[in-house]
Amino acid sequence: MRSRSYAARCSGHDDRQVDDMQKLLHTAAMTVAILATTPAYAYAADGGAIVPGWLPYAAGFASLVVALALLSEVLRLRKLVFGAALSTSVSYVVAAVVCLGASALVYWLANFIPAVSGEHAVLAANLLVTAAMGLLVVYFATVRARLMRFMREMIGSLDDDAMKGGASA
User: Fold this and answer.
1) Straight-line distance from the first to the last Cα atom of the chain, in angstroms, rounded to the nearest whole number
2) How does DSSP assign 37-52, residue by residue?
3) Angle CA(101)–CA(106)–CA(112) in degrees, nearest 5?
4) DSSP 13
5) Would you say the pTM of this structure is higher than 0.70?
6) Domain boundary assignment for the chain
7) pLDDT tens digits for the chain (169 residues)?
8) CB-based contact 33:46 (threshold 8 Å)
């Protein structure tokens, strides 16, 4: 006998009904997303500003707040794993988060410092985001390598296909 899912137990429906409701919800969400992004809305615009003037400032402020929260959490994580095998790898994540926060800060500089043009701000922000992605690649590569080494020591020799993440039949 198949056990009922948490959603089915809470709603009083069986799993198939819950699955059907979830599929319907996902289909409706995708339909709304597709219809809301059609070019007809742009053609129907009166030619005025579609984006309110305050919205870029609000988005920039929100990105700064999120970057500060992320940096705070990563620094707490770094303190937590101090001395562990992954402690040196967390430094890559800290640097990546600093790059992401700096990229959000660059847009603010372009808004408030006249010497910084918008094109320079976009270029600097893109380069900082690219650097952050590169640092995250290094982080995940080192974590994967250490995990593979750990698995080899714990389990013994595994075939290379399983260690690379491939599906062996």
Assistant:
1) 28
2) TSTHHHHHS-SS-SS-
3) 130
4) -
5) no
6) 11-44, 55-160
7) 445 455 445 555 566 776 777 788 888 778 877 776 666 555 555 655 577 778 878 888 888 888 889 888 888 888 888 777 677 788 899 899 999 989 988 877 877 888 888 888 889 999 999 999 999 999 999 989 988 888 888 886 555 555 566 554 4
8) no
